[in-house]
Amino acid sequence: MRYIPRDALPNLHKYAYKGVDKSLTSKYILNPFWTWFVTLWPLNVAPNTITLSGLSIIFLNFATLMYYDPKYLTENGGVVLPSWLYFSFAIGLFAYQSFDAIDGKQARRTGMAGPLGEMFDHGCDAMNTTLEALLACHALNLGRSWWTVTSQVATLANFYLTTWEEYHTGQLYLGVFSGPVEGILMIVAIFTISGIFGPSFWDTGILTFLRLTNVPYINSLPDTPLNVSFMVFSAFGLLYNIASSCSNVSRAKRAMGRPILLLLPFLVSASLQLVWLAHPRASDPAILYSPLFVPFLCAWGLQFARHVGRMILAHVTQDGCAFPVFDSMWVWTALCTVDAYLPLLIGRPPLIQSSALGRTVLVYATLALSFVLYGQFCVEVIGDITDYMGIACFTVRKKGKDGEWHGTVPVAHTNGDAKKAH
Question: What pTM value is reported for the model?
Answer without folding.
Answer: 0.91
